[in-house]
Amino acid sequence: MIFGRERSIKKEIISVGRHLYRNRLAVANSGNVSARIDDKNMLITATGTSLGNLRYKDIVKVDLDTGRAYGKVKPSSESPLHTLIYKNFKARVVIHCHPPLINGYFAVTSDLKALTFETKFYLGEIPVIAQDTPTVTRPEAVIAGLRSNNLVVLKNHGSVAIADKFGDALSLTEALEEAVRSAGLARIFKQDLLDELGTQVKEDLLREAPLEMFSPEHIQAIVDRVNKDEFISRKGRELALTVKLAIKLDGSGKSYKFNFENGRIIRLERDCDAPFVISAPADIWEQVFAGKLDSFVAVTQGKMKLQGQLGQLSRWYVPFTRLFAIFKEVKIK
What mean pLDDT is reported for the chain? Predict the structure, then answer.
């Protein structure tokens, strides 16, 4: 039974490797792919193998606790990184590859210029990890980046995507490669475009005392800013933003419900009786309020839970994007 399951996973890894190779996301012997078998073991591609020509014997079983490989075939040199990822996350698959456009773009910049709604919605802010060696020697930095996004870039070395399914990890990788392609084309059409994108007006927050996260004072400060925001007010009227949206801090009993009416929060209540409820543990909310994690991206990547249909909520994507931007304007302790 276990053997049959392992063979099935190996077959999937072979298929993923061919897909990466066929789409020029991996070349020669670069890149590595793995999948969790259970809580104690993973399967990972062997060292020196081509992802486009994998065979069953090129995929190695590794003990997650000891890092020991079963058999004589050596696992990828990035096996310690994959092992640490599975120890820190519930993800079931990891894809590390060297997409040429991603490598080229992030070799000269550390910021993704998001030109489409899809890029902003699904990718968000991509963590970029400094890389000085051919093999990852600072895996803890990669782990820190993956806490805020299921996709990170290793500068001059490629990308790492984690997910529950290979299809989702592939989608993240391909979406970033396409976003970079769009940014490059945009610069051809208008040379100074990338210098203008992403410019934001930064307020001086140093004079404001930090508030305890999820305290009544913290949430009320957000409400006050929302109701003073002309952009949310205008878009809220245009899009008939009338809805109840609640946010919940897992494990604390703390929740707040925003009652929107045409773009204004007319009432704040301390419950989560709403058609849309966004919930997450404290460490995720801390990243959201610090501006390190986009709420929409966190929901699509499973870091935050959404009660209600994301498709329905996304009809108000524009004003809610501004709402989530306001979240980070209120300093927390």
Answer: 88
